[in-house]
């Protein structure tokens, strides 16, 4: 088994990246399937037979195994993966033990799901650079969409947002420099959808009623700016 998985998943220089997704619940399976769409080699691992069976034939390889078992993970060549995503949600101890094992492996590109702020803090203390809070982040996103006229909202990191929205009427017929959205206010329109096509607008671009803008800037500043009309 070790030889088989090593030949399948050992990192390939100049080829598609290899990713292990440990935990195949709703979040983990979603990540794994999206990675397949992104042309990655994906190894899915879960201790639950039903979760493994549900993804059989849909990932490069899917295995029933205990992600806290060092020997099992080495047999699957997880320590040689380009990226590892620890997507274990329900069991805090398993999440922490799995992350600790990945850290011992020296995994540099390590992502881990946090159930709450306390869990996230523990993961960061263990040295995980990429801590993901899917439920919290989705809750914030939906709240912004419900309470504003935004078409989409993504907080890139705490305090920095990317918003897709229709330009407020007070900005129409004015170029971006005159609106302060060419970087002067700490916010910038990085793309405009005009007549069905996304483009990267110059500072003299004049906003039209049918345009859609992609605005990046400090979260509160973006919210206040787009709320005014």
TrEMBL record:
One of its GO terms (biological process) is potassium ion transport. Residues 148-229 form the RCK C-terminal domain. It holds the Pfam family TrkA_N. Coiled coil: none annotated. Residues 16-132 form the RCK N-terminal domain. GO terms for molecular function: monoatomic cation transmembrane transporter activity. This is K+ transport system, NAD-binding component. It comes from Micrococcus luteus (strain ATCC 4698 / DSM 20030 / JCM 1464 / CCM 169 / CCUG 5858 / IAM 1056 / NBRC 3333 / NCIMB 9278 / NCTC 2665 / VKM Ac-2230). The lineage of its organism: Bacteria, Bacillati, Actinomycetota, Actinomycetes, Micrococcales.
């Amino acid at each position: 088994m070790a030889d088989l998985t090593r030949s399948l998943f050992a990192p390939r220089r100049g080829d598609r990246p290899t990713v292990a997704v440990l935990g195949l619940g709703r979040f983990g399976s979603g990540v794994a399937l999206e990675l397949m769409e992104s042309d990655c080699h994906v190894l899915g691992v879960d201790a639950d037979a039903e979760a493994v069976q549900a993804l059989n034939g849909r990932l490069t390889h899917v295995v029933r195994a205990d992600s806290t078992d060092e020997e099992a993970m080495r047999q699957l060549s997880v320590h040689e993966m380009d990226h590892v995503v620890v997507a274990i949600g329900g069991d805090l101890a398993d999440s922490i033990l799995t992350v600790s094992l990945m850290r011992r492996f020296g995994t540099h590109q390590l992502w881990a799901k946090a159930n709450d702020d306390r869990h996230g803090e523990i993961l960061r203390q263990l040295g995980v650079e990429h801590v993901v809070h899917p439920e919290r982040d989705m809750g914030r996103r939906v709240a912004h969409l419900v309470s504003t006229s935004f078409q989409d909202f993504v907080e890139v990191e705490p305090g920095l947002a990317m918003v897709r929205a229709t330009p407020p009427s007070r900005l129409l017929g004015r170029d971006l420099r005159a609106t302060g959205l060419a970087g002067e206010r700490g916010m910038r329109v990085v793309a405009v959808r005009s007549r069905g096509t996304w483009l990267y607008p110059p500072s003299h671009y004049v906003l039209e009623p049918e345009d859609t803008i992609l605005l990046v800037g400090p979260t509160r500043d973006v919210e206040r700016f787009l709320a005014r009309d």
